[in-house]
Amino acid sequence: MNFGGIRLNSEFTLIKIVLFCILIASAVLVLRNLGHSGITYWDEGFHAVVARNLTKHPLKFTLYDQPWLPYDYKGWGENHIWLHKPPVAMWTIWLSHLIFGINTFALRLPSAISLVVTAWLTFRIASDLFDKRTGLIAAFLQAFNPFLFESVHGYRYSDHIDIALLLWVQVSCWFLLRAIRTGKRKNYILSGVAMGIAYLSKSYLALITFGIALAIWCVKRGKQIYYERRVSDNDRQSEATDAKIRIRLNDIGLQLLAAIATGAPWVIYCLIYYRKEFLWEHKRVLDHLNTDVESWGASWDRPLFDYMPLFYPVFYAVLVAAVLCLIVVMFKHWQLAELFVLAWGIGVIVPHTLAETKTPSATMIAVPPLLMCLAAVISRAWQRRDWIYTSIWMAGMLAITIISGGRTLVRSRDQFDGLKKIAPFIQTNFWIVEQLIGFGILLAIFAGVYMLVRRRNIQRWVWFGLRTVALIIALFYAGRYVQATYKVTERNSRIPLYETSGPRLQREMPENACFFLDDERVGAHFDLMYYADRSTYQIYNEHMKEPRDFKSQAGIARKAGAIPYLFSVKEMIYNYPLFIEGEVDIGNGKMQRYRVFEITETQ
Question: Using an 8 Å Cβ cutoff, are 285 and 352 in contact?
Answer without folding.
Answer: no
